[in-house]
């Protein structure tokens, strides 16, 4: 569980609604924070100070302008001399100029250090998204019926990219790690999601337009209001600015009541109609349905795939020969009925998750293949760095684990494998960081959590969550189903163990404490070894002790005859325990969107009159690996093209023939826009050219070899550089014109 | 649309509820029919006659037994002589024996010619299903919570088989045919499924236990009742038997009222409680939900993936360069809230579909690659053969198309491709037939429909539907959305065409027909060319004609001034038309289940003391391609095994190492049960053995070559026979002991 909702899980367990709500929205709102420093309330002091001092300076300058304005008016009223008035006006104008300059500085400060960057980010995104939608990488679903917010189709190239990403995921994780892949239904009965906590806690706070009934996410409205004030209204005082910032920083901590109070205090109304809003109330984000015809079996579309693995633990453990560790994996659709989806592919109502549940003995979290990733070095953003306002830095994975920054080897191993997975897909390693969860983001049972965050035009986006969730999930389903989901370590020889036995004498306790007897019994049984032995000693020496019973909130006197405490020797043949689970959880759609942005660039056409779009997908993910173009329309060339096409099909290389008479330059541009890495152009019946997309370089190879050359590079057996070295270069004027 | 519900589509269009219901259940109930002849009311006369004559003979014998019994009693009462009485008793006993013999024959006749076959089919299924569930090919979902009917998980080997089947589907169809693959959400807004007809017509008839509320499929109850009577009660008269058979044969034609009447007539009660039942009423089989928080946007989990393709037609046509033909494809989950699922993996509430929509010009249904399949020969079951009680026979595909049995080349091409797909997966070609839909099974708009049916222990199961659906689906969405989903053929030169223009003169018609004017106008405009020209001639000669207006149900007099009919010449630059769609639709889960059964067999262990289970999966679909076994536990052998494992990983061959000390024979048996085709056994550090699963033959190859030999066979570059010929044979006693 918990990809895309890594935080709700903490919430679910903690059982405190307030915390849940905070954590959930902390997660959900992360992308919107992009223009703000990574961790708000510990931004570098210099920056915060500069903004605050600018606000103060602006307020002072404003007062000075007003005072001087009054002075000028007074001079005029007093009919002072023209030079005197002119001098005063000049001074006023100069003050106004100074004020305007401070305003500009403040504007820059509040919109982030890269004020212009934000603009070009927006323009970059627009160019990428236009290309993506025009070439059908994705399409708003049910477009002819005006679509549904938060639902998207992948068109042909997007679908091919997705299926390549999933095939590589399966190769990189399932096959290379011998994981047990399962495939469970999306329709899930209520009892399962009751046990996992989703039925009760998987909610967002919502407000309704009291007249039209339109729904909004309460925290989004408050956040938008604060951001708007801070960025657009430069006249607010430094104190007011600090208050708004405090609201933003603590937004995720606000209860429904506190959120409602703030909305009232600021007079926030419905964005579209300006009508008053209802009080905030929780809305469950699962799509509900009914299983079977009776209407008596509520069900939900699963909000994650992980539960399907947890409920199968017993069978999977048996399948694995009753041995730990092992990992199970699942790829599938998950559903989330967002209140008001935004941000295109990043926040959608239906998405593909790929999740791994790696089950380990909590007493041994080493990993046999850890040495294979130990020397990887990449951007990490540990908790401490976030708290002190520093930024992510390159750390050797082995160091992070040995220093205890990363909790254990297995967690470290998966962080390393996720890094390799993402960068091999084509994610830019400089825009990829592993951010550790802060203590208050994490569930109380979780040992450690790291998110793989990818930077795109929306900011840093959580794309993979990697969490050590301890035994929480298996315990929850054990409790609810009554089926023990445990593992056992068989001892080679029985072990003699000394066990502490606390035996409350219920009769005596009943006589002494009557209705409170149960509380006292439970408290006695809950003592740890040290407490029990101390009590035993005290009872033996004094005959009676004062004992604090938490559930009664007071001390009670315990006498010697009320409890027997002893140590007994037992032979044990095995150790039975609930395994810990380490869970890497991948939001495939988010990874693909970030991959689209990281792969996109534009370059001028040869004539220089237009910008051409290119996706620099590595062959591994490119939707089509190769195109085949007869240079001109001509039966001989077309026949050669068909022969090459047939060899490509035999070699399993996805490709396309384009025999239109369009200029070869236009045909190249068309396929560059789809990210096709290689083009074979037929300009003779003996040999042909192969063009590489990004360098636009071309080599000449024989017709017979063409398919194999492309296959060797797309399969990663050699690089384009190898090919460039081996084959004669082609420098005809026909290239890209 | 329409895989697994190929027949509802006809229904949806016909608009007659009765027909819909019949067709839907005709489809849905097909598997249960397995023990009956393929087409009920035209079974070979000899068989039907024999059953009927047996019933008559039995009734006669029963009367004779009764008469003789009375005679014996009369003799006893009359105190006849002992020899006389003994002779009469002997005659009675001999009559009873004859009766019992007829009973046995009748029993055999009603349970099908293979009465024993049915039993062994059941036993075979039980053995296969036990192995499948024990080895986690599939698992009832949410088992620890006692499961949900009709929901199954694929465990590790099942999941691997499924992903191999889907990968091959993508290779065989999408890549080889350059199809445009899309990936649309499961959550679908109501408007889309309203247009497709599912909201109104995708129903089954249901009855409720009037006291407990338990729901049953009405037709299932009636069918079970009739089958039970026919098979278990041998005393029913030949007339009664004929009546029950007639009910079974026409079951799918029964309206809700007729079904209800039959249930009352036969006194059928709830199976579990014997409580009375409600009248039958339609239950929509879609899982309903609500999109967004308002509760005002109903949505459904899609019952098929096809609609996602149809609504994207315009974009896909543009993506394909505005050219026909092209095919779009989609693999994804579909949902169906079955009233009471039965038959394991064959009738489930959530399943994976793979659908192709091939769009063609209705005036040209040729296919460029048709010649590649024209010589295929396989079992086909054309409409005529079904109607005359004959069985499926081998037909050359080219002949079926050229004789017009298969409507057109493109449909024929896909039938051939489906045949190749299924047989390459490992479906037994002798238990695969292509059955043509009968005229009354098909939608009125459909040109032709064929189902690929696979025979398994449940009978002949429809696994792929291949239908020429004409322009129905695109027109339905054009009408509902207002967005024209059409294609255009541009003429190289404008063409002069003569067009018939029918112009009703509304003013005159209004004066003459008042409120009925609209009906008359529509009827006039709907005339075909021949009718219109006849009317024109008649009006010119007689000045007035009688004209039948369908919607008024009567003739009206049309005068010359009421309509102008003329032929006009126009220049046209293009022909705009709604493409036809040819739709192959694959039920992946059903194909996989049949594949499991076709691959399963048992063979005695070497000691002969037990039956071992084997799946003879071809390498293409085998969940794991290879195992690596050190013969005995030994560090050197384990190291070699690890080296080989690494080469297998590099070669992309899924495999497993088993270093347990279990006997090699047991380890082979364990992997035979998973259908692993090859085992590499390490019994030296220089060379190793490779064992083939079905022949159990072994060759010796060097450690370096081992992975490559396995790869070459699993990739289909050579056969096991090639390997057997090339490498030295291994005949150690260790094999399989």
UniProtKB/TrEMBL annotation, chains A, B:
It holds the Pfam family tRNA-synt_2b. InterPro entries: aa-tRNA-synt_IIb, aa-tRNA-synth_II, aa-tRNA-synth_II/BPL/LPL, Anticodon-bd, Anticodon-bd_dom_sf, Gly-tRNA_synthase/POLG2, GlyRS-like_core, tRNA-synt_gly. It catalyses: tRNA(Gly) + glycine + ATP = glycyl-tRNA(Gly) + AMP + diphosphate. PROSITE patterns: AA_TRNA_LIGASE_II, WHEP_TRS_2. GO terms for cellular component: mitochondrion. NCBIfam families: glyS_dimeric (TIGR00389), PRK04173.1 (NF003211). Belongs to the class-II aminoacyl-tRNA synthetase family. This is glycine--tRNA ligase. It comes from Gossypium raimondii (Peruvian cotton).
């Amino acid at each position: 569980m918990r990809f895309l909702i890594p935080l709700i899980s903490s919430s679910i367990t903690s059982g405190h609604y307030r915390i849940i709500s905070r954590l959930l929205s902390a997660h959900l709102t992360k992308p919107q924070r992009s223009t703000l420093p990574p961790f708000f309330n510990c931004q570098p002091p210099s920056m915060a100070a500069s903004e605050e001092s600018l606000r103060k300076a602006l307020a002072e300058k404003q007062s000075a302008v007003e005072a001087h304005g009054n002075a000028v008016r007074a001079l005029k009223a007093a009919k002072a001399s023209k030079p005197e008035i002119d001098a005063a006006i000049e001074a006023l104008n100069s003050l106004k100029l100074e004020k305007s300059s401070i305003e500009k500085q403040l504007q820059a400060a509040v919109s982030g250090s890269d004020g212009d960057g934000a603009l070009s980010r927006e323009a970059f995104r627009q160019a990428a998204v236009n290309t993506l939608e025009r070439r059908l990488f994705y399409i708003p679903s049910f477009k002819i019926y005006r679509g549904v917010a938060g639902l998207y189709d992948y068109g042909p190239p997007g679908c091919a990219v997705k299926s390549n990403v999933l095939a590589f995921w399966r190769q990189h994780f399932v096959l290379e790690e011998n994981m047990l892949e399962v495939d469970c239904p999306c329709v899930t009965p209520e009892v399962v999601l009751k046990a996992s906590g989703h039925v009760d806690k998987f909610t967002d706070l919502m407000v309704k337009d009291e007249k039209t009934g339109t729904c909004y996410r309460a925290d989004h409205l408050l956040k938008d209001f604060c951001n708007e004030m801070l960025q657009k209204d430069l006249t607010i005082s430094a104190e007011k600015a600090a208050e708004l910032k405090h609201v933003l920083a603590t937004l995720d901590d606000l209860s429904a009541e506190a959120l409602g109070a703030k909305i009232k205090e600021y007079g926030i109304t419905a964005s579209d109609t300006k009508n008053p809003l209802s009080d905030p109330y929780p809305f469950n984000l699962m799509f509900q349905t009914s299983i079977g015809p009776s209407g008596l079996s509520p069900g939900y579309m699963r909000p994650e795939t992980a539960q399907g693995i947890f409920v199968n633990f017993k069978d999977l453990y048996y399948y694995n020969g009753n041995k730990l560790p092992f990992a199970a994996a699942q790829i599938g659709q998950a559903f989330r009925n967002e209140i008001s989806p935004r941000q295109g592919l990043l926040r959608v109502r239906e998405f593909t998750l790929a999740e791994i549940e790696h089950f380990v003995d909590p007493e041994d979290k080493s990993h046999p293949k850890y040495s294979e990733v130990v020397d990887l070095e990449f951007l990490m953003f540990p908790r401490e760095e976030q708290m002190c306002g520093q930024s992510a830095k390159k750390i050797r994975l082995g160091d992070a684990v040995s220093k205890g920054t990363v909790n254990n080897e297995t967690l470290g191993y998966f962080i390393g494998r996720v890094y390799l997975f993402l960068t091999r897909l084509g994610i830019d390693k400089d825009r990829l960081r592993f951010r550790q969860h802060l203590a208050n983001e994490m569930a109380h049972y979780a040992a450690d959590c790291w998110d793989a965050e990818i930077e795109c035009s929306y900011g840093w986006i959580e794309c993979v969550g990697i969490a050590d969730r301890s035994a929480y999930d298996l315990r929850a389903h054990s409790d609810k189903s009554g089926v023990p989901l445990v593992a056992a370590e068989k001892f080679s020889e029985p072990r003699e163990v000394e066990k502490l036995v606390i035996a409350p004498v219920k009769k005596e306790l009943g006589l002494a404490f009557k209705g409170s007897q149960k509380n006292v019994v439970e408290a006695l049984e809950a003592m740890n070894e040290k407490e029990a032995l101390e009590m035993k000693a005290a009872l033996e020496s004094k005959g009676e002790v004062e004992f604090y019973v938490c559930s009664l909130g007071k001390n009670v006197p315990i006498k010697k005859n009320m409890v027997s405490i002893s140590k007994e020797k037992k032979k044990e043949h095995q150790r039975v325990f609930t395994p810990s689970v380490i869970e890497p959880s991948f939001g495939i759609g988010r990874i693909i969107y970030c991959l689209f942005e990281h792969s996109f660039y534009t370059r001028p056409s040869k004539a220089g009159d237009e910008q051409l779009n290119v996706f620099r997908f590595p062959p591994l993910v490119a939707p089509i690996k190769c195109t085949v173009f007869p240079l001109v329309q001509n039966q001989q060339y077309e026949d050669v093209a068909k022969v090459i096409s047939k060899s490509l099909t035999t070699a399993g290389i996805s490709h396309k023939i384009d025999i239109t008479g369009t200029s070869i330059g236009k045909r190249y541009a068309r396929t560059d826009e789809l990210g096709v890495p290689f083009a074979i152009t037929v300009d003779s019946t003996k040999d042909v050219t192969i063009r590489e997309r990004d360098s636009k370089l071309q080599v000449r190879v024989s017709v017979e070899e063409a398919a194999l050359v492309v296959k060797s590079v797309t399969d990663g057996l050699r690089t384009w550089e190898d090919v460039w070295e081996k084959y004669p270069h082609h420098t005809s004027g026909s290239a890209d014109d």
